[in-house]
């Protein structure tokens, strides 16, 4: 059996269909957001406003701010129920300081030697602990969350702290 050349109308139709397919499946160029655009700007400003209210209520207090992380899906899920300005609980267990949210253990608080936190527990000085803010770079990671914790207290001879919100 002899197969001849492809008929001209079929060749043209095949070429048109190939070009149409390439055109219809091309990647459309996505427009770039304007310079300085921050998709999390609303969330950030809401968080700062919440914390500013807490800071304003504690103007006469000394403040210490600590970096903090929570790992594990269950703990992260619980920890993310908190918003900046929500209260946390710290318990002294031996020489360690454990952070709790909704009565559940989150992680140990690592403090520097210069901190007054051990003295707060030793002398039974009242203090308040709040979630200061959350690192939004990890907001889509379900296994780890980074945040700051702020602790307010009054100790005679220790001046109040001026907290600057960023």
Q: Pairing-aware structural class of the strands and helices?
A: alpha+beta
Q: Taking all residues together, what is the mean pLDDT?
A: 86
Could you tell me the radius of gyration in angstroms? Answer: 29 Å
What spatial order of strands do you see in the largest sheet?
1-6-5-2-3-4
Order of helices and strands: HHEHEEEHEE
What features would you describe in this structure?
With 166 residues, this protein is an alpha+beta fold. The radius of gyration is 29 Å and the shape is elongated.
In short:
The chain has 166 residues and is of the alpha+beta class. It has four helices and six strands, in the order ααβαβββαββ.
State the main characteristics.
six-stranded antiparallel β-sheet; elongated; alpha+beta; 4 helices; single chain; 166 residues
Give the topology, please.
Elements lengths: L7 H17 L16 H17 L4 E10 L1 H7 L7 E7 L2 E6 L2 E6 L7 H6 L4 E8 L9 E10 L13
Antiparallel strand pairs: 1-6, 2-3, 2-5, 3-4, 5-6
